[in-house]
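Work Package 3 (structural annotation) set out to generate three-dimensional models for the target panel prioritized at the project kickoff. During this period the team completed the workflow that converts sequence records into discrete structure tokens, so that structures can be stored uniformly alongside our sequence database. As a representative example, we reproduce one entry of 455 residues exactly as it appears in the project archive.
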Amino acid sequence: MDSYLIQVNGHGDRAPVLDVHLKTNGNGISLGKVKGRKPRWAVRASEMSKKTFNPVRAIVDSMKVEPNPKKAMISLSLGDPTVFGNLPTNDEVTRAVKEVLDSGCYNGYAPSVGYQSCREAVAAYYNCPEAPLEAQDVILTSGCSQAIELALAVLANPGQNILVPRPGFSLYKTLALSMGIEVKLYNLLPEKAWEIDLKHLESLVDEKTACLIVNNPSNPCGSVFSKSHLQKILAVASRQCVPILADEIYGDMVFADCKYEPIATLSTNVPILSCGGLAKRWLVPGWRMGWILIHDRRDIFGNEIRDGLLRLSQRILGPCTIVQGALERILHRTPPEFYHNTLSILKSNADLCYAALSAIPGLQPVRPAGAMYLMVEIEMEHFPEFENDVEFTERLISEQSVFCLPATCFEYPNFFRVVITVPEEMILEACSRIQEFCEMHYQGAEGAQDLECDK
């Protein structure tokens, strides 16, 4: 029988040390004396947490400004269509969830990629001859944000880079930097309704480029790419052998004079991970139901990407099972007039806002074609008392109690974003206040020169 002896020896005020002897078959082997570890607290935030940075939160939280107490606050900043209660989801959507909840059949764990029947429902909804889908091509996620996170995590390693639109949704950068992935920003062109500067895009590709993010329809621009422009984007991706991460959460949310083209329907050779969800089109962002659609007809992703997505999905064991259980009914029974009515309201608000802001000296709105946003250029030379778009929007809050996000949040200074989901009367009141604000601070060319001379 082997025996072990551990002695702790201490003398007076000297620190105790461990005296360890190992006895095997009567032969003693001394391992020497090991100084004891003095316990102490040393809890530090992880490197990943330190690298996680949300530009919107950083800028908004730094805006130390109080609204005008004489005017009710109008917030045109938050991309949540439920805030004001004027855009409720459809009754069919609500009933579907209630019935699932009452059934008691979806209270347990689901597979991390989602229930098979629910994946089949999503595949059936988006399947078409140009981009066929089966259940195995669908990964259910906790909102579209997690879909984007999983897609980035499976495609890119630390030290690689991704191509991201500017202006663009800030989450791409937040996620990438936390994973040690470099972000390269490609330009969108406001004078071309926010089309991609394709030459600039292609110039950014190198051997470390892991994927290209295409957001269509766009947050923050409200733009919708034409079929021909999408084909040109796909041509770049094909030439450079770069897969596409398509953020299509606003898919089908386009105005009547536009047509939405899912990018995967236009290519047979570029592998695409398309991210979507219920949040925007069905007006339930808090339900956190998203998905990844895997389009890989040339088997370029192969089993490796599919297996990688499966493993990554196992970190949180999938999205809410109650909403999963309601998915088939939500997707296939929501009446078409619900979508039509939502888009009619958004289009009406967009037209009102665009017309009102176009008439204001010093502002140049870009007409949106879909989604829930409108971008407005500030001709800063006519507002010389403001350093940038952040100062402009800060003063708009303090003087007029209207809150628009400065486009510095989207890597695009001297613009601001307007959310068009608010009630019509609030849109009109906000635009009236913005006009009053600009008239108060606007200076023509002569005034601007005089102020410059006075400095």
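The longest strand covers residues 27-35.
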